Amino acid sequence: MHQEDFPVNARRGLISEDLFRFRWLDDIALSPNGTKLAYTVKQPLAQTNNYSTHVYVRDLATDSVERLTTGLSSASALAWSRDSARLAYAYAEGGASSIRVWDAASGQTSTYAIEGESMGGLDWSADGTKLVGVRWTPMRHPEDRSAAPGMPAPTIRVVRRLRYKQDGSGWVHDRFQQIWVLTLNTGELTQVTHSEMDYGYPKWSQHGERLAFVGTAREQNTPLGYGQIFVCDFPEGTPYLLLEGWQGTAVSPVWGANDRYIAFAGHNSPPPVNRRNFWQPYLADVAARTAKKLGDDIDEEVGNYAVADQRKGLANVTVRWAPGDAYIYFLLTEQGATNLYRIDTAGRYEKLVGGNSVTFEYSPAAGDIAAFGQADPSNPGELYLWKSGKVTRLSDFNPWLRDVRLSPPETYWYDGVDGAKVHAWLIKPLNFEEGKKYPTIVYVHCSMFSWDFNHEFQVYANAGFVVAYFNQRGTTAGYGQAWTHASEGDQGGKDYEEIMLGVDELVSRPYVDAARLGVTGGSCGGFMTNWIVGHTDRFSAAVTQRSITNQISFFGTSDIGPEGTEGETGTNVWRNLEASWRQSPIAYAEHIHTPLLILHADEDYRCALEQAEQLFAILRWLGRTVEMVVFEGENHGLTRGGRPGNRIEHQRRILGWFQKYLGTHTAEGGRA
Question: Which of 191, 339, 485, 643 lies 20 to 30 angstroms, CA to CA, from 662?
Fold first, then answer.
């Protein structure tokens, strides 16, 4: 990313409605022989208020590109056969699901209809005759019974497992993600797993007919409650636990040469699983059923934890090991960036791609070659090829961005609590002038701000606001395990102090109008927004998004409530009611005098709607300035993957609230 990436002569800045102009790179799959690159591109559709995702294949020798899908369809789960001759992908259109297989030589596509729930997470068997994948599968409990003859059937949900609803998937009390195999010459689907657990990440062994996958129990307080690796012979074998003494979590298993090893990302911290513990690269000896960490000095988290508004998925906690290659590839989050690494089985590792950017997807092949998707503050993501140390850009998905003006973020570090250095960014108004003072929006979180492209921030800068954001202690990843654990059991303590130290530094700048400060954030950033306005009146307006307000009720209403509450607050309500209440923003609601806009979704199962309703009810009862907007049919990921119309409206509501209470005009010496 360079200054020239931000055009200065373009006619205007970004507005919320520009969402419909974006095209986003999504999946990437490099063929095993390194000659062809498949990828998907997602774009919003005004006519359906939804998205389409299409498959493209690029021949790396000729640079020719072929589009494989058309219409209002959605494609995902790209997978190349081992001989690079065929590409499989999941396909959906008009409510019907299928698996499609494209033959590179003939250009013909075969379609395998999937009745019922769709199939994703595809991987080819070594002989090219089968595909393994994952499907939501209804499961009937032995105690379930049908209605008596002549009697109306009851409308009930019988809940027996802790994870009975999942954000983005809805109520899952009677269905579980199971492993299935599609045999291509017959079209037959065979169910591999049959237990009341959720299975994922299926991978065929390099040789033979063995599968590795992850099983996750819906009881979070068990060793299986956050995922462990199972191995199974197909078709006759019974799945068994690979690492019998493993207490923590494991995801993304992938077989190495000769099927001796399985690489994965995980940690071995005992249950109840702490969501603040880092996933890191591990290598399992399949015969010995033991595992060791690779890269002993790695103190960052595998995956992409960059928070922005461009991608629905936030983590991509994966490792990838191309057939015949000596290296295991993975992403690593570091100081607001996500970088591409590789490591060998001896633990020697190297960074392949870095910079002030976010690498969000990748696909390696044997022989020093990998494709990857990378974004930075000037671009939501392009396709690149790394080959023997040389990087080549292959795409130009959003050329229209060169015709609008963007405001580049400025990065800096300020002094936090106890002399700690806190990483921060600031975006100036698009038409910034020296000597003027500007209203300022402080965006807060408990996750991780990054070098990703952010449409929303550019909209606010275009409207005349300074936008500032900090990675204070407790940040999800990027600053070491100790930094992430630093706010554990102290929500709203030193993390709040550190944010306010950042605000102190911010208002010392001559162009920041201290009398016109706004604060906003979503999820744990919504928690922090609620906390801030309950502890200080220095902000003139606030917007809390998909927020946490009550740690006591959060435990039983969130799909991550049990482990999330204990991991964040350090306790549970029956152990220490006072500590749970002390770390609940509504405990301080009586002190909230800042005009507050509450934004929430009615199908948010991560932070349930009742969290917003409690805060709204208290503030209305107290006669405070408050407004609640509920987005119907949306979940916790509204701002990243919700219906386009609602994403635009969400931005407009925030912008309108700050314009109403802060104004957007500049001032010579304070508030005008």
Answer: 643
